[in-house]
Specification:
alpha/beta; three-stranded parallel beta sheet; two-stranded parallel ribbon; 3 helices; rod-shaped
Length: 169
């Protein structure tokens, strides 16, 4: 807080002096001037105190990343061919698997969405554990009776289907 040599806040001191002067007997200023100048000094003093206490104009924050939406349309277990914001198991094939969607969502900062466009009922059979979810993602399935995710076709391999790294997502 900026103060003068007497340890006073200058605008606040000026306001108090003006306010006292206006109320002393024999003040020569007309009442309108007294109220206008008093209001101006009050506003200036409040602004000075507000800015002196560290509250200043907010600096603009960087815009949040635009979320990506990936639609799983294949029950196969292939990974994404190129991590580029497009969920495809091979360039140009348009096939998006659950594994590929998670890989793309992890690579893109910010919250992303994974949806499903599969005929009901469908089963996604995983050959190995899905990649850990390391970034914010909303996975919206069609419902338990419409989609099942299992470990392998013979269910003999044991691994966690979904793993979430809590510190990252």
């Amino acid at each position: 807080m900026k103060v003068d040599k007497d340890n006073h806040v200058p605008l606040l001191t000026a306001f108090v002096r003006s306010w006292l002067h206006d109320r002393l007997p024999g003040s020569k200023r007309p009442p309108v001037c007294r109220s206008v100048s008093g209001a101006a000094f009050l506003i200036a003093a409040l602004l000075t105190l507000r800015l002196a206490n560290g509250v200043s104009a907010q600096t603009p924050q960087a815009p949040l990343p635009i979320p990506f939406a990936f639609t799983v349309n294949s029950t196969t277990d292939a990974g994404d061919s190129v991590i580029n914001g497009v969920c495809e198991t091979s360039p140009g094939n348009g096939e998006c698997t659950l594994r590929a969607a998670i890989q793309e969502a992890n690579a893109h900062s910010g919250v992303d969405f994974i949806n499903f466009n599969l005929p009901a009922p469908s089963t996604i059979s995983l050959n190995s554990a899905l990649p850990p979810i390391t970034d914010g993602v909303n996975i919206t399935g069609p419902g338990a009776e419409k989609l099942t995710v299992i470990r392998g076709t013979d269910n003999s391999t044991k691994f966690r289907i979904f793993k979430i790294n809590y510190g990252d997502s």
